[in-house]
Amino acid sequence: MASVDEELNQLDREIRQLKIEYDMYFGGGRKRPPTDTIWRIEQIIKKHGERGGQLNFSQRFKLNNLSQTYAKYQEVFRKRLKAKEEGAVQRHFGAAARAIEEERKKRKPAVDQPAATQPADAKERPGAAARPAGGYAATFHDPVQEKDKVEELFNVLLSAKRQAGEKVDSLNFEGFQSFVKKKTAELKKQGKGEVEYSVSLEDGKVKLKARAKT
Fold first, then answer.
1. Reduced to 3 DSSP states, what percent helix, strand and coil does the chain have, rounded to the nearest 5?
2. How far is CA 200 from CA 33, 109, 119, 155, 204, in A?
3. Which helix (H) or strand (E) holds 68?
4. What is d(CA 142, CA 9) in angstroms, rounded to the nearest whole number?
5. Which of 64, 132, 173, 190 has the most beta carbons within 10 angstroms of its beta carbon?
6. CA 124 – CA 22 distance, rounded (Å)
7. Where are the domains of the chain?
8. CA angle, corner 47, sides to 93 and 14, nearest 5?
9. Is the dihedral of CA 47, 53, 56, 61 positive or negative?
10. Which residues are within 8 A (CB) of 158 and not within 5 positions of it... i.e. 6 or more apart?
């Protein structure tokens, strides 16, 4: 049975394939609209939409992004189908699709602090709270004793950077863990002994910020 991450990756591929199949259909290389691909996409979205409470932060983030991209594609497709039926087919679908992809990239997160890379199949663990509007925050007192939370923060950061199209090859968990340990020790002196780390999307870039809680 496929895991949630595998099915979300499949959803991403299906949406990209849908764009290709629609291009072929509107260009005359395909006789029928790609209804099978649409059915597969909607089944995955429905399945995981109904069990949203069982998804971790990065999985919900990815599902929301893909669902929004699919909805925008469908709106473009609907207008193209209507124009085709009315005999007024336009020739700018490719540009519209590229615009959607650009907007999608802008929504995906980036970090202004050094970090690190964990294997792609690494599991994200519970223990930190999610912020509204795609943000994420976790509070640390002693990162050495809170390894699970450090792992989740790293996984969220890594997932956000991947979705934003940022390179993550130079990242590794050990380096990130050392950074959090050192940064937390520095900032604890400024507050009440706790440090909050947040991951957010600003101007199309993923930002990792740390602040002492006062």
1. 55, 10, 35
2. 38, 6, 22, 14, 10
3. helix 57-85
4. 34
5. 173
6. 36
7. 4-106, 129-212
8. 30
9. positive
10. 115, 117, 118, 168, 171
**164 CB contacts (<8 Å, ≥6 apart)?**
105, 108, 109, 110, 201, 204, 205, 206
The phi, psi pair for 161, rounded to 5°, reads -65, -40
Q: How many CB atoms lie within 10 A of CB 24?
A: 13
- Tens digit of each residue's pLDDT (9 = 90 or more) over 58-96: 888 888 888 888 888 888 888 888 877 776 544 444 555
For 23-49, what is the mean pLDDT?
Answer: 85
3-state secondary structure labels for all residues of 11-34: HHHHHHHHHHHHHHHHCCCCCCCC
Count, in order, helices (H) and strands (E) of the chain. 6, 4
Q: What confidence tens digit (pLDDT) does each residue in 86-104 have?
A: 765 444 445 555 555 565 5
- Helix, coil or strand: residue 139: strand
Distance, CA of 109 to CA of 208 (rounded, Å): 10
Q: How far apart are CA 115 and CA 103, in angstroms?
A: 26
Q: Are 110 and 204 in contact (CB under 8 A)?
A: yes
- Mean of the pLDDT values across residues 143-167? 83
Cα-to-chain-centroid distance, residue 203: 15
Q: How many CB atoms lie within 10 A of CB 44?
A: 21
